[in-house]
Design brief:
about 0% strand; globular; mainly alpha
């Protein structure tokens, strides 16, 4: 009897307390806006964007001569160290810290141009709550921060393509540290941090201006100020490892899905739009470049199709979340043609932008930003604007203003940084080092263990004989 009464009591207690407990759990869940699906998606997207930096290292590394491949690849990898730290200390705060929530408009006063330092050292950047501004309301603030960090890492790495095989690693180290602070962070704030370019309606979904134009223009200024490689246009500087180039573009393409689709900041229809646009634009870019090269030069090359894929990726970046798949194909194809002729024009000018950073990233970013104002449609993204094709030619104005502002700011900022560094240190290696290659001189090692390793073995053997 007592046993039966105990069971009845437990059932009654469960019936009474269960709904109350469930209500408390439901209330707690309702108060926490963090969405596990969005969080998982953005964690993967952040990792994909980081994966692009090693991809860029292989892409650039394959295009240089074998005696400079390690130095070239290190110019990408070092950014994962520099920006991985400075973004936490001050970069993120300068780019995104504002006092005005998204729902109330844009930054005012100085906050139209640069963020504050309230988030320096990740102060008040929580891992269990969204950011207080409203950038991404369903993921942790620290996740939004680290996702943006990946963009800040790869952007200055793009610049090194213009000055490979001649710049000292020390000068490059200080250049990218200063550039990421005083050029990248303000530009990111203008476009994504509730700054003045976003306020005038300039559309840049994933970095046409912030990433590609800024790095392309800075590359031109840096190459011009440092000067051409020794024997440029006299001795051929051919790629030493084309399979590296193809591996690199494959890694970049794969990572770019996180770059563009992740910029939706949640998993859903907008991320799908950006993913599809990225895929078809890149395909169109590579196909177009191969066909143009085949027709004009008789043979489609591996480096050519890789460059076409890259042009398609660059061109769609600002438009990925605003255009239809057909618009994305047109953007990829048009951008590839423009970049193809930009590369040819650069060769005719005999300007040593060594790996065509401006011809692909600068030109591609410019074309993509302008074409965003042509093909954008609110039917794809209601938060955007219609472009020329959909009855709003006025959208070209903020797009062009954004392009011009980025050109001027990146060029002036780079010029000032290089002038300061030139007064403090040597910017390029000695002539003999350039002849012998930078790997051994700048890093004390070489990629394939040929000359340097054999020299060490010979020296060790000689020393041992003397000791004997």
């Amino acid at each position: 009897m007592l046993k039966k009464l105990g069971i009845i009591g437990l059932v009654a207690f469960a019936l009474l307390v269960g709904p109350l407990t469930g209500t408390a759990w439901a209330q707690e869940a309702a108060e926490n806006p963090i969405n596990s699906g969005d969080t998982a998606f953005m964690l993967v997207s952040a990792a994909l964007v980081l994966f692009m930096t090693p991809g860029l290292a292989f892409f650039y590394g394959g295009l240089v001569r074998s005696r400079n491949v390690l130095n070239t690849m290190m110019m990408s990898f070092i950014l994962m160290g520099i920006v991985g730290v400075t973004w936490v200390f001050w970069g993120y705060s300068l780019a995104f810290d504002v006092s005005t929530p998204v729902s109330e408009g844009f930054g005012q006063g100085i906050e139209r141009f640069i963020g504050g330092l309230d988030w320096a050292f990740l102060h008040n950047v929580a891992a269990d709550a969204p950011d207080p501004i409203g950038y991404a309301g369903t993921i942790p603030h620290q996740l939004f921060m680290v996702y943006q960090m990946m963009f800040a890492i790869i952007t200055p790495a793009l610049i090194c393509g213009a000055i490979v095989e001649r710049m000292t690693f020390k000068a490059y180290f200080w250049f990218v540290l200063l550039w990421s602070t005083f050029v990248y962070s303000p530009l990111a704030h203008w476009v994504w941090g509730r700054g003045w370019l976003q306020a005038i309606g300039a559309l840049d979904f994933a970095g046409g201006t912030v990433v590609h134009i800024s790095s392309g223009v800075s590359a031109v200024i840096l190459a011009w100020m440092i000067g051409s490689r020794k024997h440029f246009m006299v001795i051929p500087h051919v790629p030493h490892n084309v399979p590296f180039v193809l591996l690199g573009i494959g890694m970049l393409w794969f990572g770019w899905f996180g770059f563009n689709a992740g910029s939706a900041l949640s998993s859903g229809s907008l991320a799908t739009v950006a993913f599809v646009a990225t895929m078809v634009s890149t395909s169109a870019g590579g196909l177009t470049w191969a066909l143009v090269e085949w027709y004009l030069r008789g043979k489609p090359t591996a480096v050519g199709i890789a460059s076409g894929f890259l042009a398609g990726l660059v061109g769609i970046t600002p438009a990925a979340g605003f255009v239809t798949p057909v618009g994305a194909i047109l953007i990829g194809s048009i951008t590839a043609v423009c970049c193809f002729y930009a590369v040819s024009w650069r060769v005719k000018l005999q300007f040593d932008d060594s790996l065509d950073t401006y011809s692909v990233h600068g030109v591609g970013g410019t074309i993509g930003a302008i074409l965003t104002g042509v093909f954008a449609t609110k039917s794809v993204n209601p938060a955007g604007f219609d472009g020329v094709v959909y009855g709003n030619p006025g959208q070209l104005i903020p797009q062009i203003v954004g392009v011009l502002a980025t050109y001027i700011f990146a060029a002036v900022g780079t010029f000032v940084i290089v002038k300061i560094l030139a007064s403090l240190m040597e910017l390029r290696v000695k002539s003999m080092v350039e002849e012998q290659g930078l790997d051994v001189d700048q890093h004390g090692e070489e990629a394939y263990g040929e000359d340097f390793a054999s020299g060490l073995s010979f020296a060790t053997e000689t020393f041992s004989r003397k000791e004997g």
